[in-house]
Here is the input.
Amino acid sequence: MGVIKIKINFHKYQACGNDFIIIDTEFSKNIIPKKRGKLAKFLCNRNFGIGADDVLYLDASFTADIRLKIFESQGPEADMCGNGIRCVAVYLCEKLNKSDLIIETNDGIKHIKKIGAKYQVNMGRLRVKMKDMKKYFISKFTDDERLLSKTIDFPEIGEIKVSIVNSSEPHCVIFVKDVDKEDINKYGKNISENKQLFPYGINTNLVEVIGSDLLKIRTYERGVFYETLACGTGATASAAVASILGKIKGNQIEVDVKGGKIEIEITEDALYMIGPALKVFEGDINIEI
Here is the structure.
């Protein structure tokens, strides 16, 4: 089959500066899965495409309001995206005239609720054991071992304490004294892009404890392989790990990211991520698939 030229409609959204291109079902159904990564790479290009961190393809679902398929700016598919799912929630709440949504992701069903101008996402429980990370992390840790505050030797960095967890996406959480003084690209190149340890990449979070219920983080994301202005699953992972390790108190945690603030509520049964999301613009683009 040769190249097919089509026009698609898209919607550009952002959540704390983490920006996305949403392609709804009417157009996503014409883009076969094996071509979605390549198209995402083109669309996300800030010089030759529309410009974004990810493309969010919306597909029909038999069990939810929509099925969300996430492709990163470098082409790979992600399991989930905390800021991205809030952007989809804004779009769908207006389109469907609903304030409660069910969205199917590669990490399972997610429940989202509109609360004022913000959106609350049930992120489920934090997964901290090696058996939860075997797909993402090549290691000799035993299946039931909790990967919290483990000392690992990384190239160019040396031995540091890290927590390797899953908050709907795989994350490496590292506590530092001052996030602004750290070279996050050095961490990203040697951790997020270290395919010998993390064959699918991993999100790397540098976390500074500001107060008993306040964190400041910077995230180098897998799939885009650069620092983004915000990461919802990263904020969730960082707050949950900080709570488990006793670095913060209470169950309402504010996380400062470069593009704004994300709130994390910690309960016995689940983690809830709460934050804003806004539409930037919409348009049409001619593409080749």
About this structure: Residues 5-124+276-282 form a domain with the Diaminopimelate Epimerase; Chain A, domain 1 fold (CATH 3.10.310.10). The two ends are 10 Å apart (CA to CA). The chain has six helices and 18 strands. The mean pLDDT is 97.
